[in-house]
Amino acid sequence: MNQKQLGIIVLIFSLLLGILFLFHYLNNLQNIAEFMRLSNGTCFNEQGECLHAKPDYVAFGGFAVAIFLLGLSIYLIFLDKTQRLLAEQHKEATHVLKKAEELAGTNEKKEKFNAFLEGFDEKRKLILKAIHEQEGIQQSTLKYRTGMSKTELSLLLKELEEKGIIMREDSGKTKKVYLKKVL
After folding, report:
1. What is the bridge-based pairing of β-strands 137-138 and 166-171?
2. Is residue 152's pLDDT more than 90?
3. In 3-state terms, what secondary structure has residue 66?
4. What is the tens place of the pLDDT at every residue in 67-100?
């Protein structure tokens, strides 16, 4: 049950309690006044006080409780945003945790890939990094990204393909290059 529902229940209870004590007060006042009028012929007691003006502490206490509950219900329905704030904080914390997990996974993959690259010379590292950054990179684009000649790149790619590190796939007049060993 959320706070708004609880506030509505408390509101209904406070209204019922207020009505109950109002009827109690009016009935009690009427009974006392009627008794005095029948006994004395008037609603004034020996001290000259009108019994209609005599306070009924039970009714006033009941009204005080009803008013307190009414205020509490208004607070719960309209003012208290605790659950909404907790839900927002939970959502934000979940988002942050997911991001942290993604970053941890990404960092782990980067570390593994960097360790994998340590077994290659600079030119092969350059080629493998470019393929890793853009999986399915066209061989013509790879030529520009590495700054190598077409022949040199082609020979290095052939060597890497024979070792089972990359694979090439025909794509029109050029070839797309993929890493075979996914880290």
Report:
1. unpaired
2. yes
3. helix
4. 888 888 888 777 767 767 777 887 888 888 887 7
Radius of gyration over every alpha carbon of the chain, rounded to an integer in angstroms: 42
How far is Cα 174 from Cα 137, in angstroms, rounded to an integer? 10
- Assign 3-state DSSP to the chain and report helix, strand, coil percentages, each to 5: 75, 10, 20
Bridge partner list, 169: 176
The pLDDT tens digits of the residues spanning 138-147 come to: 998 999 999 9
Report the percent of the chain where pLDDT is more than 90.
15
Strands (E), the chain: 137-138, 166-171, 174-179
- Between CA 4 and CA 83 the distance in angstroms is 10
- Please give the single-letter amino acid code of residue 130: A
33, two tokens? 């006044």
Contact at 8 Å (CB) between 160 and 153? Answer: no
Instruction: Name the 3-class secondary structure at 50.
Output: strand
Asked whether 168 and 175 are in contact (CB, 8 A), the reply is yes
Q: Edge-to-edge strands of the sheet including 166-171?
A: 137-138, 174-179, 166-171
